[in-house]
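Teaching soon. Got one?

===
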Amino acid sequence: LINKQQLVIEILEDITVDDDMILAVRRLKDQGYVIALDDYVFSSSHHSLLQLVDIIKVDILALGIDGAEQQLKLLSQYEVTFLAEKVETQEEFKQCKALGFTAFQGYFLSNL
């Protein structure tokens, strides 16, 4: 009933990453779903999960621009779309774009 290309399954930051979770995400990915990680902060133990996801959402309000830049450097080896979330100002939007984010969410964008 739902076009899989118009639906994004978002994995929240408080979900425990274990073998069962990886298996469930792999099944969804194999079925054609787009997978996003919400408020993600890099962990080297999540390599198997990071290979499956399509979008990584980085909370720039919580991490700041410097923290977001550090996250992008740590995650640059993965072929994903980087989404800056909680973009509140035009300056933050410009900074995030310069860092390499290609998708954006936030208050600033609601006023365009």
In short: Helices lie at 19-30, 47-50, 60-75, 90-99, 107-110. The mean pLDDT is 94.
